[in-house]
């Protein structure tokens, strides 16, 4: 437990919908994303071949899509992104897809690239497919597009837990955060922890709305924005980015993805500082959600038992259909 004496009950295990197919979409292949992709390619390789050779039932399949509009520059390599000099001038997303397709023997249905900006239209949107959207961008605009993927049509409220999860990572010079959720409004979180399992968590944009607000340098077209790459290369020693923070963030992001898929996740927000080697997390308890969102703990545990049972029965009927 991360806050001794604070939580009044153990955290609820987070459960994602176990569909026959799963799509992981990494948005951003720069400082953090370029290191994360290798972990996720290995996960896809292992996931697909484990179900194919070990389990007797119909195999489950995973796929990885890498999205980035940028091309490799020398400055990316000096900034310790996961590229080498021979790759200068080539698109980051396609390079990573090619590299790990060759390394793990993945086919085009298992790993692919989109050289361009992210938009919700890139998601397959299959009604019965688990989708994990992993954000590794450093701009408010990119996060706005990902946040839009979780929004329900105006005036509607989803009764079934969303099949789309958004795991977002962001960092500064030495510190960073990882946020995990699938629900865009606080109203939909009422009673989310009423049962023994946690099926809904707040979207990263609910926990930290400021992530969707452009910084002054983003709003001014003529102003030069400091990206992760540029922070690393700045001459002033006091402003240099940690040499290990991007690798550290990639490991944290991968941990969230893996635990969401295989089970064991009991946190929804983690904050880390590579200079002091410390990481703290908010757990999936009423108190944890209360601290993140400002609502009383009872809000997340109060729901009529009959209503909860009716919802579960409806989901089971839809699955059988």
From TrEMBL:
It comes from Reticulibacter mediterranei. Signal peptide: none annotated. Transmembrane segments: none annotated. Pfam families: ThiF (PF00899). Residues 20-148 form the THIF-type NAD/FAD binding fold domain. One of its GO terms (molecular function) is ubiquitin-like modifier activating enzyme activity. This is THIF-type NAD/FAD binding fold domain-containing protein.
């Amino acid at each position: 437990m991360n806050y001794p004496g604070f939580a009044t009950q153990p955290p609820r295990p987070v459960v994602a919908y176990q569909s026959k197919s799963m799509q992981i979409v990494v948005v951003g292949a720069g400082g953090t994303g370029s290191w994360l992709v290798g972990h996720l390619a290995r996960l896809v390789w292992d996931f697909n071949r484990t179900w194919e050779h070990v389990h007797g039932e119909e195999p489950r399949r995973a796929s990885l899509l890498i999205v980035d509009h940028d091309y490799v520059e020398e400055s990316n390599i000096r900034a310790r992104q996961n590229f080498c000099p021979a790759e200068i001038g080539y698109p980051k997303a396609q390079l990573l897809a090619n590299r790990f397709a060759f390394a793990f023997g993945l086919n085009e249905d298992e790993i692919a690239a989109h050289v361009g900006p992210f938009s919700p239209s890139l998601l397959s949107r299959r009604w019965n497919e688990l989708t994990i959207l992993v954000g590794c961008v450093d701009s408010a605009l990119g996060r706005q597009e990902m946040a839009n993927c979780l929004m329900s049509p105006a005036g509607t409220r989803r009764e079934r837990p969303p099949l789309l999860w958004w795991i977002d990572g962001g960092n500064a010079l030495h510190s960073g955060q990882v946020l995990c959720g699938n629900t865009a409004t606080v109203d939909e979180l009422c009673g989310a922890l009423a049962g023994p399992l946690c099926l809904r968590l707040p979207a990263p944009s609910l926990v930290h709305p400021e992530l969707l607000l452009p910084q002054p340098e983003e709003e001014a077209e003529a102003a030069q924005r400091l990206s992760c790459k540029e922070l690393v290369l700045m001459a002033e020693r006091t402003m240099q980015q940690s040499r290990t923070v991007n690798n550290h963030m990639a490991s944290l992001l991968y941990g969230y993805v893996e635990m969401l898929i295989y089970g064991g996740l009991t946190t929804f927000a983690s904050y880390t500082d590579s200079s002091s080697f410390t990481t703290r997390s908010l757990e999936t308890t009423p108190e944890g959600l209360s601290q993140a969102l400002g609502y009383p703990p009872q809000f997340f545990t109060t729901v009529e038992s009959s209503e909860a049972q009716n919802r579960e029965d409806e989901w089971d009927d839809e699955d059988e259909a």
